[in-house]
């Protein structure tokens, strides 16, 4: 068995564990700090909304020797707006201008044809009106809200309302961090970004439900015993599924990291950045929230119940009583061994005593 697998088995059996619940205030503090940073970045920098949300135009030129940076300057001069330019595989350029008035598309197209020294008819123009962008944004928010409501209803029925609230807080935590990273990095928000967000929410929810299911099974008839508190069992549930959560997260992050850093970074496939960044940040945040936020929050909410409070008092009282009864006795100081005891046995123990009679003693006869 591999070393990681051995650790996972020992964690599942409870032979070793880490006190996640006991350090929950630390995890809450880290999450609050990251969330505040994300909100500040979102408020200061804002989101770089794509053309599908703002409206605008996309111009595609024929094969040209004009560089990307030079094309960006041409597009900004022609439209008065910042442009996103991508070089396509056939040598043509895709110029995306968001937030522009679509009525000026013909004027901008003529200016670009003049700068690129090509015929106007060879430049293709695709227009997206602002009303279409608003409709896309509204649909995205509606889909996200419906998803949240369905999640809360399902978890409240399948588990309990406290777990539903904890899962909802974890999902909001993941969304806030992912959106904040988008604002800080300045990546363009596209429909692919929304798809990535919904995907990572489902993944985060799956990871959280795995821990909740283990917790639900282990807390059946919890008030009929006095060995463990609810927090103890919650901590055991996290440790029991820890290696599984880490393995699934790493396996999911590796291909996404390839899309983000290799595809979008080294190979320059900028169209992969919008969905790969949301997946990468969301998967990492989802794994963190399922371990450090959702389950500790459930334990906090459950510990407020009168029955769970009474159970905690009984468990702590029993532990205190057991600790008093089994106080460790002071070990005796090391003393030198008794010489008589050390030399009590001269020969091998299996040697018959009769063979040694009379040896080493005077016979009693005088000479």
Automatic annotation (TrEMBL):
InterPro entries cross-referenced by the UniProt entry: SecD/SecF_arch_bac, SecD/SecF_bac, SecD/SecF_CS, SecD_SecF_C, SecD_SecF_C_bact, SecF_bac
Entry's transmembrane regions: 26-44, 140-157, 164-187, 193-215, 250-269, 275-299
Keyword Transmembrane recorded: yes
Name of the protein in question: Protein-export membrane protein SecF
Major place of residence: membrane
Assembly and interaction partners: Forms a complex with SecD. Part of the essential Sec protein translocation apparatus which comprises SecA, SecYEG and auxiliary proteins SecDF. Other proteins may also be involved.
Residues of the Protein export membrane protein SecD/SecF C-terminal domain: 111-303
Organism: Streptomyces roseirectus
Highest taxon of source: Bacteria
Pfam family, one: Sec_GG
A molecular-function term among this protein's GO annotations: protein-transporting ATPase activity
Biased composition (Basic residues): 356-367
Protein purpose: Part of the Sec protein translocase complex. Interacts with the SecYEG preprotein conducting channel. SecDF uses the proton motive force (PMF) to complete protein translocation after the ATP-dependent function of SecA.
Gene3D superfamilies: Multidrug efflux transporter AcrB transmembrane domain
Gene this protein is translated from: secF
Record key words, sorted: Cell membrane, Membrane, Protein transport, Translocation, Transmembrane, Transmembrane helix, Transport
Region ranges (Disordered): 317-367
GO biological process: intracellular protein transmembrane transport; protein targeting; protein transport by the Sec complex
Location of the protein in the cell: Cell membrane
GO cellular component, one term: plasma membrane
Lipid bilayer topology: Multi-pass membrane protein
Family: Belongs to the SecD/SecF family. SecF subfamily.
